[in-house]
Amino acid sequence: MAEHVYFVYILASKRNGTLYIGVTNDLTRRVLEHKDNYLKGFTSIYKVHKLVYYETYKYINDAIKRESDLKAWQRKWKIKLIEKDNKYWKDIFYDLTTPEEIKGIRENMEYRKVNNLN
């Protein structure tokens, strides 16, 4: 049986810009959905597309709890957390994937959209 991995992630519009905190079981796909404005909402409206931080969890309940806790944090604490490992707010998404994987995810997203599978 395959082990599950869950991610809590922080996206930013720019350094010290608007922040978004989310949870997912597929970080690459989910961040690409944000980058491509695949789902309309907060991140598409405020152009929050840079992956600046993430954590991994074995259990979904732990990930959801952490997401909730981070959302309740003061902004300065969130910034300190990001800058602990990502001082310059680099978009780390492209360190986690390849152009081929991105292409495959986009093709799957388009297939799901065309076939109304969302």
Structural description of this entry:
Helices cover 45% and strands 18% of the residues. It is built from 5 helices and 3 strands, in the order ββααβααα. It has a single domain, classed as GIY-YIG endonuclease (3-Layer(aba) Sandwich), CATH 3.40.1440.10. It has helices spanning 27-35, 42-45, 60-72, 75-85, 99-114, and strands spanning 6-12, 19-24, 50-57. The relative contact order is 0.20. It is α+β, with helices and mostly antiparallel strands and 118 residues long. The two termini are 26 Å apart. A hairpin with a 6-residue loop joins β1 (6-12) and β2.
In short, what is this structure?
The protein is an alpha+beta fold and 118 residues long.
What oligomerization state is this entry in? single chain
The CATH class label is: Alpha Beta
Tell me the CATH superfamily. GIY-YIG endonuclease
The number of distinct β-strands equals 3
The CATH topology is GIY-YIG endonuclease
Walk across the major sheet and give the strand order.
2-1-3
Structural class: alpha+beta
Query: Which architecture per CATH?
Result: 3-Layer(aba) Sandwich
Q: Give start-end ranges of low-pLDDT stretches.
A: none
State the end-to-end CA separation: 26 Å
Fraction in helix: 40-55%
Strand content: 15-25%
Largest sheet: 3 strands, antiparallel
Radius of gyration over alpha carbons? 15 Å
Instruction: Specify the overall morphology.
Output: globular
Q: Provide the succession of SSEs.
A: EEHHEHHH
Number of helices: 5
Arithmetic mean pLDDT: 93
Overall domain count: 1
